[in-house]
Each structure stands twice: as structure tokens, then as C-alpha cells.
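STRUCTURE:
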């Protein structure tokens, strides 16, 4: 990757923590950035809308204080995720707040907007757009996205169905900008594998659900600890967009995870139950089989770093015979 603005800053490991709807909050983002990885949160997590300004201010102040006290281990930049979809009536307000604070990285989802890219890049920020196939990747770049987040099969929440090998090699045929690969990455070995496929960063979300700082219910965190890949269900029932969810939460809401009906793209709830996808149905990726306990964010990043360093060492040994 050609160094681009905030993406060129050194990280402890090449990881972007993905924005977790409801779950990501300032405490989690601050700890991610202090641990040396890019932290992020969805703008819509700050409710009411006026809270977004307060959240970003809190993150910036905490990281500035950390950097003053730790000049040899400065924090990583942070990112804010914007849902670029017609249903998001806060988008203009939230972009204005991000512009006011010159948020270094803006992640866009469910749509690509040229004017948003221009605004963010105008103050020196970068935009990363998540995509599930090569066609969406081309459209995002045509509309000015700085980089891409290929979301492969197995990713938590809204996800695609393509193999990461197929997705990465198709996009790398024509795009040489920054990319963060998403999809069942939960170990240091997988981070190195993402780089081997051509990614600049690994995009990791579900492991951070089971951290002390995450704003998730204790039952949700424990379900992540206890589950494995076989417990993940892919469905479009809950939001109208296909995504991966923990089967335990589906059962808890009186539904059969093996016999779910399909939904139309405008659906925002399901059946006759009162549960909401953003509250009672738990998004999660297939990589959680290696999550065995609830850790602090710093401990989780430390584990990933040790595994990543060991994987690089083993690869060098294997290559050198």
C-alpha cells in the first residue's frame, strides 16, 4: 500500500477493529487505539444524534492524553462508520460532525456517495467502503473511496458469500489502494494470511464483542465464548440484508434457526415477535471458535500480536528450510 494519510501511521499489528452496531462505544475505541490498532464505531451508536459530538471529543481527548504520556507508543487513529443508505436520516448531521472534528478515517456502508468522499478527503481524511463483490468495489472506487473493505464469507453482521481468496484476487487485479479484509479473522495467523492474500489490514469485529469494554450484554459475550462457526446462521430475515447471527439469539426469540423465512429488502423486523435485530438478534462472524474467555481489549490485542509475530517467525523458518 502506498502510505495514505492516517493509514500510514504505524500500528502494533495491521488491524482495523470493525464498527459493531450498538456494541462499539468510546471506551472500546479508546482501548483499541491505545493498544495500537485502528478503533472504530458506528455514528448511529451515539444516541441521540447530539451525542456524536461528545463521543468524538471524548475519544480525541483521551488519545491525546495517552500520546502525551506515551510518546514512544502513540495511539492509532480512529474511524467512524457512516451508514450511507436512504433510511439513515442522520447522515448529513453526522457527516457535519465528523468534518468538524476532522475524523481521520470514515468507513462507509450500504451505499457509496461521491460527495461524502470529497468532504472527508478535503480535510485530509480517508474513506474506506465495505463491499461484498468486485462490482461493488469498482463502483465505490469510481465514486472516490480511498480504500476498500472486502467483506468475505463468514464475516459478522451484514456479509457476503464469496471466498476471501476469490474476492481479494479479483479486486487486486485492478486496485492497488488500501484494503482491509473482513471475514472470520480472529487469530494472528489469520491476520498474516489476510496480508498474504493482498490485504493491507485485517478487519476484525466479533472477537471484540467478548471484551470487557464492549457495550454488549453479559449473555451476548458468553454466547460468543461458547459458540463456534457451526453456531452462525446466515439470513436476511432481520434487516432485509443478508448477515451472520448467533443461532442462540434466534432460538431465544422463539424462532427456528434452521427454518427461517426470507425477507424483502425493506423489512426492519420479523414475524410476530417483538425482538429487534439491532437489540435481540446477535450479529457474529464464523471466526469465534478461538474465543475462549472475555478479555480486556488490551489483552485481546496482545494475544493477536503474539500470534501474529509467531506466525511470521514460523513462516520465515519454513521458507528458509
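SEQUENCE:
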Amino acid at each position: 500500500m502506498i502510505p495514505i494519510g492516517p493509514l500510514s501511521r504505524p500500528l502494533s499489528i495491521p488491524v482495523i477493529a470493525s464498527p459493531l452496531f450498538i456494541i462499539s462505544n468510546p471506551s472500546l475505541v479508546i482501548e483499541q487505539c491505545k493498544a495500537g490498532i485502528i478503533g472504530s464505531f458506528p455514528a448511529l451508536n451515539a444516541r441521540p444524534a447530539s451525542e456524536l459530538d461528545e463521543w468524538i471529543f471524548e475519544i480525541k481527548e483521551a488519545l491525546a492524553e495517552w500520546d502525551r504520556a506515551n510518546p514512544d507508543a502513540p495511539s492509532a487513529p480512529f474511524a467512524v462508520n457512516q451508514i450511507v443508505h436512504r433510511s439513515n436520516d442522520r447522515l448529513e448531521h453526522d457527516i457535519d460532525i465528523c468534518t468538524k472534528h476532522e475524523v481521520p478515517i470514515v468507513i462507509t456502508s450500504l451505499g457509496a456517495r461521491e460527495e461524502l468522499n470529497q468532504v472527508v478527503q478535503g480535510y485530509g481524511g480517508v474513506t474506506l467502503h465495505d463491499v461484498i463483490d468486485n462490482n461493488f468495489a469498482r463502483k465505490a472506487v469510481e465514486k472516490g473511496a480511498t480504500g476498500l473493505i472486502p467483506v468475505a464469507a463468514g464475516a459478522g453482521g451484514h456479509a457476503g458469500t464469496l471466498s476471501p481468496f476469490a474476492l481479494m484476487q479479483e479486486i487486486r487485479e485492478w486496485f492497488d489502494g488500501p484494503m482491509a479484509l473482513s471475514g472470520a479473522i480472529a487469530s494472528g495467523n489469520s491476520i498474516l494470511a489476510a496480508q498474504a492474500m493482498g490485504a493491507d489490514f485485517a478487519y476484525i469485529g466479533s472477537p471484540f464483542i467478548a471484551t470487557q469494554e464492549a457495550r454488549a450484554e453479559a449473555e451476548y459475550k458468553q454466547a460468543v465464548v461458547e459458540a463456534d462457526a457451526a453456531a452462525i446462521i446466515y439470513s436476511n430475515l432481520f434487516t432485509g440484508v443478508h448477515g451472520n447471527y448467533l443461532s442462540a439469539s434466534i432460538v431465544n426469540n422463539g424462532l427456528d434457526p434452521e427454518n427461517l423465512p426470507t425477507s424483502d429488502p425493506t423489512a426492519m423486523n420479523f414475524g410476530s415477535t417483538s425482538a429487534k435485530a439491532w437489540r435481540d438478534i446477535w450479529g457474529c462472524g464464523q471466526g469465534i471458535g478461538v474465543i475462549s474467555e472475555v478479555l480486556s481489549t488490551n489483552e485481546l490485542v496482545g494475544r493477536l500480536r503474539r500470534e501474529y509475530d509467531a506466525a511470521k517467525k514460523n513462516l520465515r523458518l519454513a521458507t528458509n528450510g
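REMARK: The CA atoms of residues 43 and 209 lie 18 Å apart.
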